[in-house]
Each structure stands twice: as C-alpha cells, then as structure tokens.
Amino acid sequence: MNIVAKPIVKDQFWILKQDDRKVGNIEATDDGFAVKINNKITPFKTMAMIRKQGDIEFAAVGNRPSKEPASYQVQGYPSGSRVYNPIWDVQHKLPLYTKNKKSRSWYAAGWYQVKQRRTWTIEQSPKLITLQRYQYQGPFYTKEEANVKPLP
To answer: DSSP states of 70-88 as a string?
Structure first.
C-alpha cells in the first residue's frame, strides 16, 4: 500500500493519494493528527507515528504544484500580475493585457526603458498610454536585460 501525503496547508493538512487518486487526508488536531482513509479515522500523536504505523510517505513541500506561470505572461513576457485578455498589438509590436476581465486599461507585458522628464527609468508592465506618450525601448524579458541595453 504505497500512499503519498501531499501538503496542502503547511503542517496542518495533507491529501493522501494512491496511484494518482485521492484515498483520504491527514488533518492536524488539538491533540495530534487525524488520518482519514476510506471514512475510517485513526488518531496519531506525532507525525513519526504516522510514518511508522501508517505506511505513508510524505512528499516534500517543493513537490507541491505551483501556479501556472503562463497566467502571468503574455507572449513569454512577464506581467507581474494576473493576465486577462492577452493580445499581441501588431501596430505597436507589444504584448498587451488587462488586469481583470472588464478592464479598459491596457498594460504592456515585459520590462521597458521609459523616458519621462529627461530621465530614463526601467519599469515592468507600464500602461499602454505611458508608452504612447513617452519615448521607450522594449519589451525586454528581464530587468537585467533592460539594464544592459544602452540608453539612447
């Protein structure tokens, strides 16, 4: 019986899976832990007792599935926030997106060098209107790449 416990809430709650299907869970209680498998609840005082008696293997926290990076990117450029309505603006050659479904404010994904009041600054995902009003260079995939590019 090869059961793997995957952490959901650190040190509080785990999902038990066997062959990629859920078979139960482990929940922290006031006096230890409760292991529930097939509607049968077994109390344990410590995690070591669960490992020893329960024949349960604990997955490392690093194996936890992460958020989809694609939902924070437009055409491979980082946005810094959740992306809605991603498009490629052919006229301006920019990856654009909005920050929510009904927004009318467009942002340009990536890193940019923007000149405002005689000063060049490096910005991530500026508003489209900023790029339309001021001189800029970009998009760049990383902040370091924007720093390396010589300013005009």
So the answer is: GGGEETTEE-SS--EEEEE
In this prediction, residue 61 carries a pLDDT of 59
Residues 103, 134: contact at Cβ < 8 Å? no
Alpha helices in 15-140 (DSSP H): 47-54, 128-133
**Half-sphere CA count of 55, side-chain side, radius 13 A:** 5
> Which residues of 3-141 form beta strands (DSSP E)?
3-9, 13-18, 21-29, 32-37, 40-44, 56-58, 73-74, 77-78, 84-89, 94-98, 107-108, 111-116, 119-124, 135-140
Spatial separation of the C-alpha atoms in residues 73 and 1, rounded to whole Å: 41
User: Which tokens is 66 given?
Assistant: 């992460």
Task: Quote the CA–CA distance of 74 and 82 in Å, as a whole number.
Answer: 10
Is the pTM for the entire model greater than 0.70? no
Q: Is the pLDDT of residue 21 over 80?
A: yes
Structure tokens at 62: 């690093």
The token duo for 6 is: 């995957």
